[in-house]
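Problem 12. The chain below contains 385 residues. Write out its predicted structure in token notation.
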Amino acid sequence: MGNSQRREFIKRSTALTLSTGLAGFPAIVRGQSGPVKIGVLHPVTGALSYSGQLCRLGATIAIDEINAAGGIKSLGGAKIETLFGDAQSKPEIGVSEVEKMNAQGVSAIVGAYASAICLATTQAAAKYNIPHVVDVGVADQIVERGLKNVFRFAPGYRAVSQQAMNYLHIMNTLARKPAKTVMIIHEESLFGTGTANLLSQQLPGMGYQVLEVVKHANPTRDFNNIVLRMKALNPDIVIPANYYNEYALLVRTMKQQNVQPKAIFSVLGGGASSFKFVKEFPDVANGIIDCNHWYNPKDARVAALRKKVEAIKDQYFTYEVFLNYQCVYLLADAIERAKSRDRDAITAALAASTWDRHFMPFGPTKFVDGQNQGARPLLMQVHQG
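Solution.
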């Protein structure tokens, strides 16, 4: 059947369904066959579009692989049909996209990258009992509201911050404590503000003096004044917590103004754990430390996926890509076990998940109040590329 014939068939069959009243049948009747509709919702335009597009790429690769391997086998090989949504880097737009996805009958949603957007989309999805797998959004408020439909695969910023400070303190102690003062630079949204608040609370109790906590807007195109302030304060450690563009510009400005702290120790640094950043700014990136989402480098499956991603022009194997890739497989596993397109059945299957076929440095997936208890970050350092 050609494309024009297919469109005409769909057009006529839709008209027939509406004219005969079949559209009014209960959802359980209409949902027993056909594809499994999954919403893939990210900020693919606006200030966060670079990361949002990478998130979409990771989810798309996983869905294509699952469909090519025979679809959801417990549903007779049903294919996953992707419904894309663009949050446009705004929480309120993310909510309107969830409304559209609900009207289109999605069984679940994966997304929506930024903490502020995830906070809004998970709440909106809860109105319709749509299971929502959170890919990245690190704000712990996302999983602390008692919403039964929310499942975050990766660690939140409280766990990451605590792990990062433990790592920092161990390294500083082994080095005979050369670092005593800290300056925190963070972006203004829920992610950056929440992370900075946690760090500024934890560090004094570990013997570090927080000289200043500086917030910046998204987007920010000039860090000269912030770096001049940094130069005046002369902190031993600079801790950035921001998204890719701002991260890259901040550390480049530090390089230009010859600001050289004892360490740039990132916590969920938007650029530090990025092959793009390392390739484009090797002299700036060298030596930077970051506690962030990362895969298990010993897992052989990683190399094949990275090769697939990097075969696409101008694409990099980032945490946005592989977290969404894994989240789709987590969701597909739940649908397989639920043997159903029903939202409540999928939610129950996610809640009971013990999925361990990921390539993250996690234990088996186990959700408590929506948070994966097996999730943990890794500490990394850029060294000569």
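Discussion. The domain at 31-155+301-375 is CATH 3.40.50.2300 (Rossmann fold). Students who got a different answer should revisit the alignment rule from Section 12.3.
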